[in-house]
Every structure is written in C-alpha cells, then in structure tokens.
Amino acid sequence: MLLTIALGNESYSINSIIDKKLNYKLEFKKIRAGEGYILIEKDSLFNKSILILRSQIKTNNFFDLFYRIRDELTIYMDKFDYSLLRVSNKISEGKFKKDFTSDIDLSLIKISNPEDELPISDKVHSPLSVIFSLREKLLNLDDKFHYTTYNMGKLKNVNISIIGKEIINTSYGTYNTIVVSPQSIDNTSLLRNNGDMKVWFTDDFNRIPIRIEIKINYGSIVLSLEEIEEWDI
C-alpha cells in the first residue's frame, strides 16, 4: 500500500522518519532536471536490528542530453545513531561509472572495500546519514557538531555549523527552516567533484530535510521536497 502525504500549510506531525519515502525534485540552475528520493526502513544485518537508508537520484530525459545521472546509494546504519555498518554506491554520472561497497568493522576498527582497507578510531557516517543524525539533535544557532564521514573510499573530519534560519518556498507552501552546512576540517571538498553540501531542516518538531543543495564543479544541484509517502509494502 502506498499512501501519499502532501506537505502543506496544515500542521502534520511526523513522529519518525522510518518507512516514509521523501520524494524530491532535482533542479539545476532553477530548471527541473530530474528527481530523487530518500527512504529509511528497518532491517537486520548479522542478526542485528538496523536501519537501511536507500537513496536514488536520476536526471530526466532532457537533462540526460547534457549530463546523465543515475546514482543509487544503500546505507546500512546503526538504528540509534545512524553510523555506518555497510555502504553500497552505484554511481553513474556522465562518463564516470563505479560500483563501490564497503564494510565497517568496529571490532577490528577498520573499513574494508575491494580496493583498500582504512583504519578508523571511532564510528563513521556518510554525508547523507549525517543529515538524519543531525535531525535527532536540538538545533540552535551557534551549535557546532563534529563527525567523521566516509564517502567513496575517503575519510574526512567534518565540522557542521548552524549558519542561520531562512524562509523556504516550496510547491506545497512556505516553511521556516534551520540551515546547516558541513565543512571539512582540512578545507577539502566534502563530496566527489569538489562537492559541498547545505541542508535546510523545517524549524519544527519534524525536522524534515526539505531542501538539500550539493555544490559541484559545474554548478549546484538542488533537491527540493515535493511529497512524503507512507511506505507500507
């Protein structure tokens, strides 16, 4: 059963993000370029109760003519703090294509993938799982948070700041938001292709990531929330 819940001016309380599919429109330079989604579900790994985050971004037929994107991400996460247990990337961006799976072993304090092994000293997050970890925290101006992120074989130490509040206009209404921005400590880019990120959370109990902006070499990709679906299969 798939039930669509539209965000609007009416108050809607989302007690948990679990089993709710966040559907986004993808924009490039204010032109609709495709769509994407984020879905978090309960599952198990090694007989342990966990969460799985699934995400996909794909460009539309028109934008495919210029730069085709078909990215899929599956993250196996700790159900309490959203830290990584396993991550699988299927990346297809223009001529760049790569499938990449890594396992995080806290008992052996290392990350293993087919190409390499990396030592770690503590839990790590992906740039995307950080969003949902932050969502569980009380976000106030001047708050700062520290994470170690792992993305496509690279570890980065990241500081995240609350950089302000903004009013965001969406297809379904106007929302007060809290704006956060992660920055790597060594001033290198957080994501591939010199990419950095900014996230707008609704400034209410729900803390929904209503807008995500990813800055890359050739501009900014913006994911703007269109609807939330109750995901019940």
Please provide the ordered H/E string of secondary-structure elements: EEEEHEEEEEHEEEEEE
Task: Give the overall form.
Answer: globular
Characterize the biggest β-sheet: 15 strands, antiparallel
Helix coverage percent of residues? Answer: under 10%
Rg result: 17 Å
Average pLDDT reading: 85
Q: Report the structural category.
A: mainly beta
- Tell me the β content: over 45%
User: What are the low-pLDDT stretches, counting only 5+ consecutive residues below 50?
Assistant: 1-15
> Separation of termini?
6 Å
Discrete helix count: 2
Q: Give the number of DSSP strands.
A: 15
Question: Could you explain how this protein is built, in words?
Answer:
It is built from 2 helices and 15 strands. The protein is mainly beta and 233 residues long. The longest helix is centred in the middle third of the chain and has 9 residues. The N terminus is likely disordered.
Secondary structure layout plus pairing:
Layout: E1 2-5, E2 20-28, E3 31-45, E4 48-59, H1 61-64, E5 70-77, E6 84-93, E7 96-105, E8 110-113, E9 116-119, H2 127-135, E10 144-151, E11 154-170, E12 173-184, E13 196-202, E14 209-216, E15 219-231
Antiparallel strand pairs: 1-15, 2-3, 2-15, 3-4, 4-5, 5-6, 6-7, 7-8, 8-9, 10-11, 11-12, 12-13, 13-14, 14-15
Quick description:
The chain is mostly beta strands and 233 residues long.
List keywords for this structure.
mainly beta, 61% strand, 15-stranded antiparallel beta sheet, 15 strands, 2 helices, disordered N terminus, 233 residues
